[in-house]
DNA sequence: CTTAGAAGCTAGTCAGCATAGCCAGCCCCT
DNA sequence: AGGGGCTGGCTATGCTGACTAGCTTCTAAG
């Protein structure tokens, strides 16, 4: 009985591979077990069950997106930073469409995800800092940005745009629309 | 063996009740069977299986939304019509959050849903008619509207807005942002 | 009244989650 | 170096749910 040397992180990585390759509905313990070369029950040594695995995957994905967003926005400001943030969001989703579907839409409601979700929120808020929005106005502006990015990206990832018009152009229009709505100083 | 007198439409209605009450993940043939007072295999007399039931539910939901949108927009025009369309979209989702999650994001890719999806698209395009957009510009504008409505509504339905700020206000801002982006004549 | 088809049923298979309980490899401690 | 305990594997088992096969009964048309 040679040991495989699994860990919770390795299980999550395998789960993400399964999702990337076969879609979020194909995430089963059986599939992850097969990929890691282990019998399904063995996964319970590292992960409490399918539900926990899903939240761990969600945390991983949020964290990845946040890290990328931070890297992209660092050193920029104003309209430029906002546009880059939105593009980065979409680019991530386009690169990993299935993975995005595994990201919970309400991270702030799941205790385990609050930390990761809050960090993402902070990046949005920080990017809007220069506009001098009051607390409440900043929240509204952040929500609008998130709704736009999530709405477009999730539709694109799901193949929801039937027609052949250029999607880059549609998204740039959305970005312009959003930037225009932010207050000039 | 008294007959229950089921039909495909009745099965879909029961499925929607299950979704409304217990969420979209609770849609199982077993649950629908229990609700209709029938053994699970009997459902196959009316519906080819869970997958088909889901697409029938999707069609029903799209059709309902379209009907409501048409009723709301009829007799209006311009910015007013656009705003009403977006509000109607969100209101439907707020009333039936779980049901919305059962609506496929890509109706134009599923042959069975093309008709219903196209009708919804037509309503969007017709509402924008007054702005005199060229074909391509109309597509981009429709997509933007859909991304905004879907993005906000799906996040709201999923409980994705953690903080307590007024959601009506956020949505009105999005509507204003969108309307402002449409060309003045 | 007969008969065919539709609508229901039971029984059974298979996938997938989960739990229980056993066994072997590995590390640490003396 | 040897031994013990933890840990990471395993098999076996049970449960739910989708789906199939094949039977029975109700009903409606002729």
From TrEMBL, chains A, B:
GTP-binding is among the record's keywords: no
InterPro entries: Homeodomain-like_sf, HTH-type_TetR-like_transc_reg, HTH_TetR, MT1864/Rv1816-like_C, Tet_transcr_reg_TetR-rel_C_sf
Occurrences of domain HTH tetR-type (ranges): 5-65
DNA-binding region: 28-47
Keyword set, alphabetical order: DNA-binding, Transcription, Transcription regulation
Pfam families: TetR_C_33 (PF13305), TetR_N (PF00440)
Name of the featured protein: TetR family transcriptional regulator
Species of provenance: Plantactinospora mayteni
